[in-house]
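This week, look over our next protein:
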Amino acid sequence: MIKRNLLIAILILCSIGTLKGQTASDSLAIVSAQWKVESPQKGLIYKYASIPRLYQGPQSVSLIEVDPGAGLKVDVAVSDKMKETSKIASEYNAIAAINGSYFDMKRGNSVCFLKTDRQVIDTTLQSEFKQRVTGAISVRKRGMKLIPWNKQIEKNYKGKAGTILASGPLMLKDGQVCDWNSCEPNFIRTKHPRSAVATTKDGKVLLITVDGRFPEQAGGVNIPELAHLIRVLGGEDALNLDGGGSTTLWLSGASDNGVVNYTCDNGRFDHAGERKVPNILYITHQ
């Protein structure tokens, strides 16, 4: 098994290379990690790895892989008030979920464009465009796509059907690293707990969290590191979501109220530190 993992790692390194600041040893650490793998139901795979040294420190990575071809779909859930990801997911009878996009912690509303069907709930603040919002989740009858986003695109989308949730930055598009030069440098470079959604070449959807703020167990990652991680894991398109204390990955039926990553809002390396959020991305049956 070890030899097989090493061979896979070499093939990955040859095919995708590394991003600036990431090394071949980082790619090897991801592929050769001892991943815990479970398949709680058809079309859904949960993976977790604690990697002792990745991106200059320990990392705690959780991933849920979704196969829409197995009768599953992705959607955006909007709560009437801020609640934990686990509570919103349960209310929507979800089978898996991840926290959504950026929001005003005092008012409880999204600060990024949010539209369900033809109803615009929130629009993107100018400060969010300047700092990080360069992508969006688009959910229509044909499925979910990750698309580029800017002021003009937002203006054009206001009257269209479907659900849109803007976020950012958009990290990967068609397997290539996106340009983050328009984003705030400190946001890009600083290591944080991170949440992301990605799609693969064969149509799978990945919900990914990287824990952080625990130097001994989970150092967190910056945006280039997160993009590199997702690329090694097979992501073709990838969008960063709200991170930090909001970072939460949830799986129906799992212990600890379904929270599978190590949430940090309580300051303890456990599953009980969820932050209340206004929206989530969730998986349900078609």
